[in-house]
Design a protein that fits this description.
There is one protein chain. This protein is mainly alpha-helical. The chain has a domain at 4-160: Butyryl-CoA Dehydrogenase, subunit A, domain 3, CATH 1.20.140. The protein has 23 helices and 7 strands. The longest helix has 37 residues, at 433-469. The chain is globular, with a radius of gyration of 24 Å. The two termini are 40 Å apart.
């Protein structure tokens, strides 16, 4: 794998919009640090309306500046997780972040103590119009907000807690090394986090099997460390949920985003109710691959060898632009800007973050990290992350800073809608029976990976947290046993497993952000509906773009309703699963 210095500049993101260089980072960080101390001037005085407004405006301005340099430090670290200089930058930032949190903890506490009637009056005043949602949250959170001393203590505790995710990232992206794997001819192949996606799609079944066995098995060699690290993360989630007077970590997570336990439970019920779609998909693949027994490592195997397509990064951008053209000229032009202005860090390099993500903050255009390998999955991943980037751009453009940042519950809708539009692009151009089968397979694999797999992950998370909350001991063996049980259900009895698959949970970074993953599934449910509407109703794009421009101006359930997606209704789920069944039927018809 190439070193960072060997990658062409045009394939690296431009971080100067956040901060010009490392020297400027330290200068600006020092300036922020000095300004933090001035908040003491407001402590105990926020019942004064004038001082309250002045304090909130100062906090939001400083937060904007801090976020810009924080994003810069984070992205510099993502470029090379092993680099000492960027690790030190991240640590320095952490110290200031903690001080910022500590010195401003009193703000929410003092505002919470204001009478509810007063808070309602403030919401209606023109001067505070951009803080409407802030005051709504204060009113809603009154019963979960502690006293000033307790809140300050929690803020200080955060300085030494929350490290499980960082430990995992360093272990997984830097320290963990994999053995070479063999193909059917006995040839050795280097395995790493990035090229695993290539091997799992290989026509060589031996190579596929060995890739799955080595990747997951390697985590199994360190399962006691990873399990202990994860269990500590689970304990933190549960303890802080209890401190905040929530019934469970799940409830705390859902409450924090103003989402809905009904939606979460409805997802689990509907996915289990429609598990036969996954089973039918595996059976079709078994037939297509000519196998006596379908195995877990066959899930990504190509069913049509002639469609082993490769794409350059430039080709991928062009295809994505055409695929999303139903969203209008502005949206398409933003995709081109992302390429020309280098919003995207494209290629893998040594010690770079594995996977892909998009991030951004108010005052700068968003950025995307990906590890583009030139396969179809890389094109879809790029489209996915650009969906996030466009969502961030539009929210920042149309919302004040106070309501620009959307929650994760809504975030994954934009990305998966882009994926669905891209799928339609390829299906429309599929001229042969084999091409159609290829994209039927691709769609249903996405359904399996995004709806079924992420829901399985959610069940695993719920189990782990509930076990601790019910005072049942957690262990590496218990977690592996539960994951194996869930894997067996979600794949079904007809799919052959590998013994190493029970360790797969140990390599999932999203588990360190509790109850994040189920939102991928609900988002895919929405994306199926939204993409169908976009492709059949020319006026619908306005509603969808309005949704993307809403930030957090409303609760996420209401925001999704702008795009005619009501996840509190079983019919929304039923409609999407009906589309999945239709794909199964169409595939069966041409077999």
């Amino acid at each position: 794998m190439k070193n960072r210095s060997e990658i062409e500049e045009k394939y690296k993101w431009d971080l100067t919009k956040f901060c010009k260089n490392d020297d400027e980072f330290y200068k600006r960080l020092e300036k922020v640090d000095k300004q933090i101390k001035s908040f003491k001037n407001y402590e105990g005085k926020l019942s004064d309306e004038g001082l309250l407004f002045e304090c909130l405006e100062k906090e939001i301005a400083l937060l904007k500046e801090f976020s810009l340099i924080a994003i810069y430090a984070h992205l510099r670290l993502c470029e090379d997780n092993a680099d000492r200089k960027t690790n030190e930058m991240s640590e320095k930032l952490s110290f200031v972040s903690t001080r910022f949190s500590n010195e401003t903890t009193f703000i929410d506490v003092e505002i919470t103590k204001l009478p509810s009637k007063k808070l309602q009056e403030l919401q209606s005043k023109p001067k505070f119009k951009n803080y409407r949602r802030f005051f709504e949250a204060i009113l809603r959170d009154k019963k979960h907000t502690l006293g000033k001393k307790e809140e300050l203590l929690i803020s200080k505790m955060c300085e030494c807690l929350g490290g499980s995710s960082s430990c995992f990232d360093k272990f997984s992206d830097v320290d963990l090394k994999f053995d070479d794997i063999l193909d059917e001819k006995g040839k050795k192949h280097e395995l790493n986090q990035s090229n695993f996606s290539i091997y799992r799609e290989s026509k060589d079944r031996t190579l596929r099997k060995n890739a799955f066995a080595e990747l997951n098995g390697k985590y199994g060699e360190f399962i006691n460390f990873v399990a202990t690290n994860y269990i500590n993360n689970v304990k933190e989630d549960c303890v802080f949920a209890k401190i905040r007077k929530h019934k469970s970590a799940l409830q705390a997570s859902i409450y924090g985003e103003e989402a809905s336990e009904r939606v979460y439970n409805l997802l689990i019920d509907k996915v289990r109710e429609n598990i036969d779609i996954a089973y039918d998909y595996f059976e079709i693949k078994r037939k297509m691959l000519g196998l006596d027994k379908f195995a877990v490592y066959d899930g990504f195997a190509p069913v049509v060898s002639e469609l082993d397509k490769k794409f350059s990064y430039e080709e991928a951008i062009g295809i994505i632009k055409e695929a999303v053209s139903v969203l209008g000229e502005e949206y398409v032009s933003l995709i081109e800007r992302a390429k020309q202005e280098r919003w995207i860090d494209v290629l893998p390099n040594k010690n770079k973050d594995s996977g892909a993500f998009s991030t951004g903050t108010y005052g700068a255009t968003p950025v995307v990290l990906t590890n583009f390998e030139g396969n179809l999955e890389s094109v879809f991943t790029l489209a996915h992350e650009l969906g996030h980037a466009m969502h961030t751009y539009l929210s920042n453009k149309h919302q004040p800073i106070q309501t620009a940042e959307y929650v994760i519950f809504v975030a994954e809708v934009a990305s998966t809608t882009n994926e669905m539009l891209l799928l339609n692009y390829f299906l429309k151009r599929a001229k042969t029976k084999k091409e159609k089968m290829y994209f039927y397979d691709f769609f249903l694999n996405q359904v399996k990976s995004t709806i079924y797999r992420q829901t399985m992950f959610a069940e695993f998370e719920e189990f782990a947290h509930a076990e601790y909350e019910n005072e049942h001991p957690l262990s590496a063996d218990l977690l592996c046993e539960k994951y194996e049980e869930l894997n067996n259900f979600y794949f079904g009895k007809r799919v052959e497993q590998l013994p190493q698959m029970k360790y797969e949970w140990a390599r999932i970074p999203h588990f360190y952000r509790a109850f994040y993953v189920y939102k991928y599934a609900t988002s895919f449910i929405c994306a199926i509906r939204i993409s169908n509407k976009l492709l059949t109703d020319k006026t619908f794009a306005k509603k969808y773009l309005k949704m993307l421009s809403s930030g957090c101006a409303f609760d996420p359930i209401s925001i999704l309703k702008i795009a005619e997606c009501d996840l509190t209704k079983p019919e929304t789920f039923d409609e999407s699963f009906a589309v999945c069944r239709d794909f199964i039927s169409k595939w069966n018809e041409i077999l």
